[in-house]
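Contributing new records

If you add data, match the layout below exactly. Sequence lines come first and carry their own label; structure lines follow with theirs. Keep one chain per record. Anything else will be rejected by the validation script.
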Amino acid sequence: MIRLSEDGEWLLADMFVCGECGTELTAPVTRVAFPVRAHHHYGHEMLPALMEPGTYAVDPEPSGGPWRPWAEVGEEAAAALGVFAPVYSLPSGPPGAVVVAPGDTRATVFIAGRCDGYCLGLDGRDGPNLACESCGRAVATRMDDCSIWQAVWLDPTAVRRVPGPEPRTADWTTLLAEEHGTPPVEQPGHWSPQWEASAGAALAHLLAASAGEPVALPAGLLTDMFGRALTLLLPPGRPARTLSLAGPGLPVPTGAEIAVVPVHPRTGDPWRPPGEPATVPLPLDVWLGLAFPQDRSLLPVTGGLPRDVRRDDPLPSHPNWMFRPDRWVFLRTLARLPEVRRPWLRAVYDRLRDERNRELF
């Protein structure tokens, strides 16, 4: 779709229209990688929008009912769907659900009787709750209840994508200059939910890369994120492998067998370090928060600060509890890694899937 914006610039992006009557249901949007926290629930609070304005992502997995229990699906059929360890149930709906920011929807109306939720908003329990304004076809589900990332999920069977020209893919140098990191503590006393969800997914990849051997971690936030988990989940002893933060703009790590690297926000491809160590992917905003922490003081500074000197006014925010990777994201990610079929890693999965074993989370 090629269209002029209000300031006269060309917009080169996709658009989604009603599959029944062709009414435009979204603003022009550009595809980005599917967020690791897309199905993540967090606490008992209102969360912001899952997607940045002007973007969309596609869920590669089936979504929606009817839900089939693991015993009915069977291990072989589940593996064909990309799930390699037991889960409670699997959806049998179509793959390809499209998620956009609520503010990017157009020409939709709520469907009476389908706007229920658990607490403070809509949770989609009644199925699609948005209809095309022109023809009345159910086309999407708005979700904004507490603990849910606010989003609109377009039904892939009810909408149609009108493709625009392929947008330019920014290189890593451009991304470093334009993107911003998410700080680990977003409000006093609270770890960032983005960090907890991203760490849950990264921990699954890290365990798979460890091959069941102890891992040495560098001092700092990486140890805060993964140190306690690895102590509990890997055998004791002298570390057999080392972990390093790697990516564009950082010195090339030497001797690290495992590298924590950023994921390109549009393509979903991880950055590839020299030497091809095992990689643990992190969303770019969280990786930037690790690699290039920002001085977020709102007080004016004259002349800048010397390198490696940090402000202490106001004092930095500190959380009220130790960091914990998100359990649900961890289990969901680990179940979808083929390595989980290794006996030692399957034992870890089975142990942590048991609700009685929540010591890590």
